[in-house]
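Notes from hallway chat w/ T.B., transcribed later so I don't forget. T.B. wanted the structure written out for a chain they're using in a teaching module, and asked if we could keep both sequence and structure tokens in one place. Agreed to drop them here.
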Amino acid sequence: MAIRKSQIKRETKETSVSVSLNIDGSGKTSIDTGISFLDHLITSFGKHSMLDLTVRAKSKDKIEHHLIEDTAIAIGSTIDKALGSRAGITRFSYASVPMDESLAETSLDLVKRPYSKITLSIKRNSIEGISKEDIEHFFTSLTRNLNVCVHVTVKYGDNDHHKIEAAIKSLAVAFRNASLSDKKQKGVPSTKGAILLPGVGNFDPAIRSIRDYSSTDFKDYVGESMPVLGICLGMEMFFEKSEEGKEQGLSVIDGEVVLLPNTMKVPHMGWNSLEIERQNNFLEGVNDGSWVYFVHSYMIKTKETGLITANADYGIKVPAVVQQKNFIGTQFHPEKSGEIGALMLRNFLSECKK
């Protein structure tokens, strides 16, 4: 699992907040918001979630509500950023934490689907100098920006301070356990999802668009169960580098992308027949010699020839289909290749449903 550290600096006309953290820390905290009870709650959250957490927050407009809200937003956003794709995590957790006569429970799902239900059962209008509504808003702003589904419920209690402490600690413990690495889990812990990398555009912007979406290594994000289909450029992105650009490729497969030989008309456009080297599920029902449609200026070059499942012959052999576990790539365009292409796409969809 990649290092899960991040930092965010949030500047508005109302506040200045900086947060840095390490999810895989030891609970070391350094918190300064200028509000004692808020510092206490954030310190408790960091300690019991085992985050190494540093928070510096200052008010510019002297309005406490803005400072509490922006601090919660910044902490939640920084944790969300550090979690990355959330590949390989436990995902679900539950914690029940007592504080003397009070008991609070948190049920947490670290899926990227924000929903929060916060029930603190506070009776007084102010607790340790912070209004009831600002304490409730702190919990809501924090959990919504975590980008998770979470239910925090104070089951019972008499002392409002104890209720709030039990609630923040139950949230911390549930987060700690849900974010732990699960060695049995490959990729994102979800039964949903497949990825299609289309054959449109050019190499550098396409690679940057994926890296902008997630800081996590693409292979870690996908794991070994999520089907991925790369078409033309999409397949070329699987490799380490391309003569078309300067960006590093996704490095799913060792090799590079090179310009077609200058003896050929570039771009190559037209129908060519497939020479099937070995069958796989993607090529099920596709006969050797089937015709498919190519539009490309580059081709792949790899020493991992066992991953090439079909070639096309332009006077030289051009790899037409590659497969590395759950990654499938085509140099041609199945969506432009008539019934044969439609058959391949149906085969891919069948893999997605498994």
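Follow-up for T.B.: The helical segments are 36-49, 64-83, 132-145, 160-178, 203-213, 218-222, 233-236, 338-353. Might be a good example for the class.
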